[in-house]
């Protein structure tokens, strides 16, 4: 499952896990801190903010070549470009400084940090294990000529499956990024699986946007999103040559975030 659905709202499970870890840590810190007359809520929030900032900066520095010409994209976090471990270390270092400087916070903050970090780590490991145990769905869709095609027919080399629709603004913004990757990556197949729209509408969209895409498929019954556990668009899935899912991305891809995922597929 990639998203948690609350009515019409689809939230990424990884985002829910991070928020849940913060909320649990805050609750535990508050309960313990009542006995000591202090509440570590503000310290926990600052640790999270510092961790996110450092995780983003680490990603930007690693893929700096993709940001040189458009520096404003450094603050555009919609691409999900974060490297977790530098952020975790930065947050823990700030937490250690708080523990050293404020004796009354040591027990409530220390326990809260431990509980929040444990939940996030265990949850992340479970999500990763579940994701990597997922296979390329056995699903029949249609190509632009109306011929039936099974997704598993594309197994045999690394595969990127992009779920999109013409009405989706982030889908439209990431299309040129994926198109360039398709033209550049000869060893990786990129499938564009449209969700619930007709061939005529897709053709009109491509013509208007001046896009030239290969491997366009139509999922008219919107079954693929249900099978992979995502109601969010765009959703991009990454499979190895044996059809095992090795990664996923919810939301808009940038050149940098796509390169990170493709590097894993290439084994870089």
Automatic annotation (TrEMBL):
Main location group: other
Subcellular location: Cell envelope
Protein's GO biological process: cytochrome complex assembly; lipoprotein biosynthetic process
Pfam families on file: AhpC-TSA, LGT
Residues of the Thioredoxin domain: 130-267
GO cellular component annotations of the record: cell envelope; plasma membrane
Gene3D superfamilies assigned: Glutaredoxin (3.40.30.10)
Alphabetical UniProt keywords: Cytochrome c-type biogenesis, Disulfide bond, Membrane, Redox-active center, Transmembrane, Transmembrane helix
InterPro entries on file: AhpC/TSA, Lgt, Thioredoxin-like_sf, Thioredoxin_CS, Thioredoxin_domain, Thioredoxin_ResA/DsbE_sf
PROSITE patterns: THIOREDOXIN_1 (PS00194), THIOREDOXIN_2 (PS51352)
Keyword Transmembrane helix among UniProt keywords: yes
Transmembrane segments annotated in the record for this chain: 6-32, 44-63, 83-100, 109-130
Entry's Gene Ontology molecular function annotations: antioxidant activity; disulfide oxidoreductase activity; phosphatidylglycerol-prolipoprotein diacylglyceryl transferase activity
UniProt xrefs under CDD domains: TlpA_like_family (cd02966)
Protein name: Peroxiredoxin
């Amino acid at each position: 499952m990639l998203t948690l659905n609350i009515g019409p709202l689809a939230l990424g499970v990884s985002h829910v896990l991070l928020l849940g870890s913060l909320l649990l840590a805050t609750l535990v810190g508050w309960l313990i801190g009542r006995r000591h007359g202090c509440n570590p809520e503000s310290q926990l929030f600052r640790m999270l903010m510092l961790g996110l900032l450092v995780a983003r900066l680490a990603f930007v520095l690693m893929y700096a070549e993709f940001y040189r010409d458009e520096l404003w994209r450094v603050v555009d976090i919609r691409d999900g470009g974060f490297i977790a471990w530098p952020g975790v270390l930065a947050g823990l270092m700030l937490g250690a400084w708080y523990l050293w400087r404020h004796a009354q916070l040591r027990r409530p903050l220390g326990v809260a940090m431990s509980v929040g970090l444990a939940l996030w780590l265990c949850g992340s490991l479970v999500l990763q294990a579940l994701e990597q145990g997922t296979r390329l769905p056995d699903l029949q869709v249609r190509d632009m000529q109306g011929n039936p095609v099974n997704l598993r027919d594309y197994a045999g080399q690394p595969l990127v499956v992009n779920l999109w629709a013409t009405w989706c603004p982030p889908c439209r913004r990431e299309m040129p990024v994926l198109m360039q990757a398709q033209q550049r990556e000869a060893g990786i197949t990129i499938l564009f699986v449209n969700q619930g729209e007709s061939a005529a509408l897709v053709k009109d969209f491509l013509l208007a946007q001046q896009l030239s895409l290969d491997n366009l498929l139509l999922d008219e019954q919107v079954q693929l999103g249900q099978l992979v556990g995502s109601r969010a668009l765009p959703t991009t899935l990454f499979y190895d040559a044996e059809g095992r899912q090795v990664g996923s991305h919810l939301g808009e891809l940038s050149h940098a975030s796509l390169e990170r995922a493709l590097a894993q597929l290439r084994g870089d």
